[in-house]
Automatic annotation (TrEMBL):
<feature type="transmembrane region" description="Helical">
    <location>
        <begin position="165"/>
        <end position="187"/>
    </location>
</feature>
<protein>
    <submittedName>
        <fullName>UPK3B protein</fullName>
    </submittedName>
</protein>
<dbReference type="GO" id="GO:0016020">
    <property type="term" value="C:membrane"/>
</dbReference>
<keyword id="KW-1133">Transmembrane helix</keyword>
<keyword id="KW-0472">Membrane</keyword>
<dbReference type="InterPro" id="IPR024831">
    <property type="entry name" value="Uroplakin-3"/>
</dbReference>
<keyword id="KW-0812">Transmembrane</keyword>
Length: 248
């Protein structure tokens, strides 16, 4: 079959660990070839041993998990073929190596035990009926597990680098505060200076207005017709003299 098994593409927690990995469950792959009594197996082999793997002729010939380090391959996750059909409501992930309680189980009980080394591994799905294999997928690309580090090999430098980062961040924060203070001071001085200039302009205008009282006011060329005479008509009819009328 043209299907290639692969690690699930979604970002899952623990998708690949030091002893397990999560495969995407194939769907609609075996529908044309499977009967109700058939089962789907997962063959797991070290990447350099997948080329020499031989499909078992019957369930009795399935290579067990406990011989992985000697035979370089085993088969696990025996599942009814109906669980891989298009309409099956099954989980989308198959975790390989997730059963820690089956280390000592016999050959007739396929074990999905933890993988003993980082690998890399290759896997394929095998459809088996009562008379042996009926269909199989292609082998996956090599799958490399994570490697656990010994505490003695852990470099303590990251903690020192972390302290250096804290010191640098503190210095930058202090410089930022000083710069902000300087900017605010400059803006305050500019605003205060503009206010002072406005006050000086008002005071100068006041003083200039105040000094104008030393300039004698211009006298009118002639008085109004009424001029305050009593009766008013007398001042208009009398041709002389106008001076006493100005002094009243």
């Amino acid at each position: 079959l043209p299907y290639v098994p692969h690690v699930h593409p979604m970002a899952l927690p623990g998708k690949v660990t030091a002893t397990t990995f999560a495969l995407e469950r194939p769907r609609c792959v075996f529908d044309r070839h499977a009967d109700a009594s058939d089962a789907v197996w997962l063959a797991v082999a070290f990447a350099n041993a997948s080329a020499t793997f031989r499909n078992p002729r019957s369930r009795a010939d399935v290579p067990p998990y406990k011989q992985l380090l000697t035979t370089r391959s085993y088969m696990t996750l025996e599942t009814a073929a109906a669980a891989y059909s298009c309409s099956a409501p099954t989980p989308p992930v198959l975790r390989v190596g997730g059963d820690t309680a089956c280390r000592d189980q016999g050959r007739q009980d396929p074990c999905n035990g933890p993988l003993p080394s980082p690998g890399p591994y290759r896997v394929k799905f095998l459809l088996m009926g009562c008379r042996g294999p009926k269909a199989e997928t292609l082998w996956s690309d090599p799958i490399l597990l994570r490697t656990a580090l010994s505490p003695s090999t852990i470099d303590p430098a990251p903690s020192r680098r972390g302290s250096d980062v804290v010191v640098i961040a503190s210095i930058l924060a202090s410089l930022g505060a000083v710069l902000a203070t300087a900017v605010l001071g400059a803006l305050g001085a500019k605003v205060w200076g503009s206010l002072c200039h406005q006050d000086l302009g008002t005071d100068a205008f006041t003083r200039r207005s105040y000094r104008t009282h030393h300039i004698p006011p211009a006298l009118p060329h002639s008085l109004p017709p009424s001029c305050g005479c009593s009766p008013p008509g007398l001042c208009r009819s009398a041709p002389q003299p106008p001076a006493p009328c100005q002094r009243i």
